[in-house]
Design a protein that fits this description.
This protein is α/β, with parallel strands linked by helices and about 250 residues long. The chain contains twelve helices and eight strands. The protein has an eight-stranded parallel beta barrel with strand order 1-2-3-4-5-6-7-8, surrounded by five helices. Bound molecules: 2-phosphoglycolic acid. The site of 2-phosphoglycolic acid has 13 residues, from strand 8.
């Protein structure tokens, strides 16, 4: 059965002390996660060790990187290799967030390479895809997202693909307060699953967690997560407030 995941994406926010306190408040809530539920925290790189250690004692809670580089090691000043993440016990890494695609020119091929290195190091990539507003307005979002999936994922075999988590994040909904409707989310998630099923078969597609991201809040998470093909969320702004993210975790199916 596929996992239901509430993933926090702190982006470049919070000091170390604020981050530590936020995690503590969430842990103090002692939310009981079911066997198939996960809470994942994509924290800034300097806080990964702290987050990993803090969450280590709580079942189904994980720290995640927000990014890694598409090279194994070497003269790449400022970058973080997947192997380094593994060496500090990190098991998840966000790959291809739209902010990285836009500001750091990350291509679909580069994201494939990043995920390859993650998988080699037993790190589950949280692969982000999603269309900009112009594409949504033109009504061509399905083929746009399909191309992202094909170019970054289809060179993986079945076993590899099943380790990847997909996050559908329509760019027009990120940080805008404008959430996709449940119909829009379900429609795209079903499309993504159908694209995966065509390439890898139904069983594989049914096993992949597909998260929704883009203005997930405490007051809309339950409705979004209740959609058949929405297996949780990737949450930016609302993950910075303990009370809100606790509610979001509790909204998982
Ligand atoms: P948001 O960000 O929840 O603040 O819209 C989501 C994301 O970028 O992952």
């Amino acid at each position: 059965m596929r996992k239901q995941i509430a993933a926090a994406n702190w982006k470049m926010n919070l000091t170390y002390q604020q981050g530590e306190q936020l995690l503590q408040e969430i842990l103090d809530a002692k939310i009981h996660l079911k066997e198939d539920q996960r809470a994942v925290f994509a924290v800034p790189a300097p806080y990964l060790t702290m987050a990993g250690q803090k969450l280590a004692g709580s079942k189904n809670y994980f720290a995640s990187a927000q990014n890694c580089y598409n090279k194994k090691s070497g003269a790449y000043t400022g970058e973080t290799a997947a192997e380094m993440l593994k060496s500090i016990g990190i098991e998840f890494c966000v790959v291809g967030h739209s902010e990285r695609r836009e500001y750091f020119n990350e291509s679909n091929q580069m994201l494939f390479e990043k995920m390859q290195l993650c998988l080699e190091n037993e790190i589950a990539p949280i692969f982000c895809c999603g269309e900009p507003l112009s594409i949504r307005e033109a009504g061509t979002q399905n083929s746009y997202v399909e191309t992202q999936l094909k170019e970054s994922l289809f060179d993986f075999n079945e076993a590899q693909l099943q380790k990847i988590v997909i996050a559908y994040e329509p760019i027009w909904a990120i940080g805008t307060g404008k959430t996709a409707s449940t119909e829009q989310a379900q429609e795209m998630h079903a499309h993504i699953r159908a694209v995966l099923a065509k390439q890898y078969g139904n069983t594989v597609a049914e096993n992949i967690s597909i998260l929704y991201g883009g203005s997930v809040k405490a007051n809309n998470a339950k409705e979004l997560f209740s959609c058949l093909d929405v297996d949780g969320g990737l949450v930016g702004g609302a993950s910075l407030v303990a009370k809100d993210f606790i509610t979001i975790i509790q909204s998982l199916k």
